[in-house]
Amino acid sequence: MKTAYDIIQKPVITEAAIADMRDKKYTFRVAMDANKIEIAKAVEEIFGVKVAKVTTVKMKSKPKKVRYVTGQTSEWKKAFVKLTPDSKSIEFFDSLM
Questions:
Q1: Which of 4, 13, 32, 69 could be disulfide-bonded to 45 (CB atoms 3.0-4.6 Å)?
Q2: Taking the model in full, what pTM does it have?
Q3: In this model, does residue 97 exceed pLDDT 80?
Q4: Cα separation of 94 and 1, whole Å?
């Protein structure tokens, strides 16, 4: 049985993600096998908010070269979570805006 903390791995902090926070859209790195329903329940459980919509994207691996060593970055899954208009914002992200 996966816990909410197994599903939501960490927040994604980028310029685009911070710009979306004004519209109550938050971005998280999630487990590869998590579906949208599990992600919504995990966000509601951890942060105590109401989720309106979840969109997911699988980020493909990219070639990476450091000096003479070549390799690949790992694949990961990104989730965009939109909260309902009457829901409170997530306090963790308030300090970033």
A1: 4
A2: 0.89
A3: no
A4: 31
